[in-house]
Design a protein that fits this description.
Largest sheet: 4 strands, mixed
Strand content: 25-35%
Radius of gyration: 15 Å
Number of domains: 1
Strand order of the largest sheet: 1-2-6-7
Helix content: 25-40%
Shape: globular
Length: 154
């Protein structure tokens, strides 16, 4: 089935090995941001610097799509970010079974942060915090993730 309304580059994976080989290699965790836990993806420091140099001091709009893949046992989420008006996209694939709290925080806050991987500790000074255009899509994704994980536990 083709989705002709898909505006961002969709990635396709064919085997469990494809998913495992494409998982985001750096850390993803929850950080405290103004008293709230928000999900944070660490990326290569060089790439982080390139993104910051490109968007610094300018209006920033990022379209975020959560693409869920599952086989009723394993749940993977490909986070697709399109930096509107800048001409680039970023993809981060995660194994959601091991990190439901990450997606819960995303659903609760509607925020996601990007940080450089070489930071000793992530602080608000070295974060790019992005507000999701549609928080309800994160809520829906989280609910689907939990439903699949709970079915697996039965």
């Amino acid at each position: 089935m083709f989705n002709i309304f898909h505006t961002m580059p969709k990635r396709y994976f064919h085997t469990l090995a494809d998913f495992r080989n494409n998982l985001h290699k750096l850390d993803a965790s929850l950080i405290d941001y103004n008293g709230n836990p928000i999900p944070c993806i660490q990326i290569e420091s060089k790439r982080y610097d390139e993104i910051i140099r490109t968007v610094a001091g300018k209006k920033l709009a990022v379209d975020v799509l959560l693409d869920l893949f599952h086989d009723t046992k394993h749940v993977f989420v490909d986070i697709l970010m399109t930096y509107l008006d800048y001409g680039f996209d970023e993809n981060y694939l995660f194994y959601a079974n091991k990190m439901p709290e990450f997606f819960k925080a995303l659903a609760d806050t509607g925020l996601i942060a990007i940080a450089p991987s070489d930071s000793q500790s992530v602080s608000q000074g070295n974060l790019l915090v992005i507000q999701l255009p549609r928080k309800d899509s994160a809520e829906s994704a989280y609910n689907q993730i939990i439903e699949i994980i709970k079915k697996r536990e039965k």
